[in-house]
Write a structure and sequence with these properties.
The strands form two sheets. Strands 3, 4, 7, 8, 9, 11 and 12 form a seven-stranded mixed sheet that branches. Helix content is 21%, strand content 19%. It has 334 residues and is of the alpha+beta class. The chain has a single domain, classed as Alpha-Beta Complex (Sulfite Oxidase, Chain A, domain 2), CATH 3.90.420.10. The radius of gyration is 19 Å and the shape is globular. It has ten helices and twelve strands. The chain binds ligand MTE and molybdenum atom (MO).
């Protein structure tokens, strides 16, 4: 059941972080459509998503997305569910899958958390290739199933923290990104890795309609961050291939950083000498830095980051420095 609930101040989505310039562009766009003033300038859909999700997710029963996830599972016998890596433990319950897969951010499919799950089912997941280029000895094109078939996949329980202040705890399946990087043999001149999402306005309503964003979504990590043990090239969740709304078929997960660093549905990985731009940093540099490590002492201009709300239970917890992963990453920033 959904119900109307007043949206708490902290729940304003990242989408409202767009700079004046971006909002200006958006306004002009809506004016061109004759829609300005029709209540569409308020940012996201006014209704807060009901976080106690209805049954049936995910994937959405009968959808193209569900068919693709089942097909991927069959095409990769023995890979899902993967053995869990016992090194990564949680201090809280795993978020129910029905909750985690119904409360996503994926602006390519809009900023309404209810609608985007359905919209995301339109994404064609196979064939899917990832182009590797830039400063590497072995550039090339990788089929996503080849990665899963030929590399060690494992399951990891990770906390996952959005700058919007909600958090969840999920079992991801993937390949340590370091193992993948070792196959590519980056040159010593490579200092950063840039990741790029797909550009398919014909499938992604957000890319078609929300043209004030600099599509496609792009992100970046320094090489030491990219090859940190925590960085997971993620292809599955809850024991099966990723459903579209979680960033199928392949995404990054960096659990010590705010969620927007964990770019979904990657089609390109480029090794660079200089720090790449990132989607949110280019939109609003004062709110979204390149590093974006989870830090309770550093308030975001519109949300204190001191506490977080766990999806599913709504229990509030103090935010942990590096989201509790200081043991792995604090040394990178010393
Ligand atoms: N391509 C792409 N990747 C993205 C986003 C996005 O809008 N597009 N949103 C980010 C944000 S803000 C968060 S919090 C996480 C959410 O991941 P989840 O929906 O799997 O929980 O994805 C990140 N990766
Ligand atoms: Mo986020």
């Amino acid at each position: 059941m959904t119900y109307i609930r007043k949206r708490p101040g902290w729940q304003i989505p990242e989408s409202e972080a767009a700079s004046e310039g971006v909002f200006g562009a958006r306004r002009r766009f809506l004016e061109a459509l004759g829609l300005a003033g029709a209540g569409l300038l308020a940012g996201s859909c006014a209704g807060a998503a009901d976080k106690s999700a209805p049954a049936g997710a995910p994937p959405v029963p009968g959808s193209k997305g569900q068919g693709a996830v089942l097909a991927a599972m069959q095409a990769l016998p023995g890979r899902y569910p993967a053995a869990r890596n016992a090194r990564f433990t949680l201090d809280r319950p795993i978020t129910p899958e029905e909750t985690a897969a119904r409360y996503n951010n994926f602006y390519e499919f809009g900023n309404d958390k209810d609608a985007l799950v359905t919209q995301a089912q339109e994404l064609t997941l196979r064939p899917w290739t990832v182009r590797v280029d830039g400063l590497v000895e072995k550039p090339g094109v990788w089929d996503v199933d080849t990665i899963v078939r030929t590399m060690p996949v494992e399951e990891r329980l990770y906390r996952h923290r959005c700058v919007e202040r909600w958090s969840m705890a999920v079992p991801w399946t993937g390949v340590p990104f370091k193992a993948f990087v070792e196959r590519l043999r980056p040159l010593s001149s490579a200092k950063f890795v840039k990741f790029v999402c797909f550009l398919r306005p014909e499938e992604a309503i957000g890319q078609r309609r929300d043209t004030w964003y600099p599509w496609p979504y792009y992100e970046g990590l320094s090489i030491p961050e990219a090859i940190n043990e925590l960085t997971l090239l993620t292809t599955g969740v809850y024991g099966h291939p990723l459903p579209p709304q979680h960033g199928a078929p392949i995404r990054i997960v960096t659990p010590w950083k705010y969620g927007y660093k964990s770019i979904k549905s990657i089609v390109k990985i480029e090794f660079t000498a200089t720090q790449p731009g990132t989607f949110w940093n280019d939109l609003q540099p004062l709110e979204y830095g390149f590093e974006s490590n989870v830090d309770p002492t550093k308030p975001h201009p519109r949300w204190s980051q001191a506490r977080e709300q766990m999806l599913g239970t709504d229990v509030m917890r103090p935010t942990l420095p590096y989201n509790g992963y200081g043991e792995w990453v604090a040394g990178l920033y010393a």
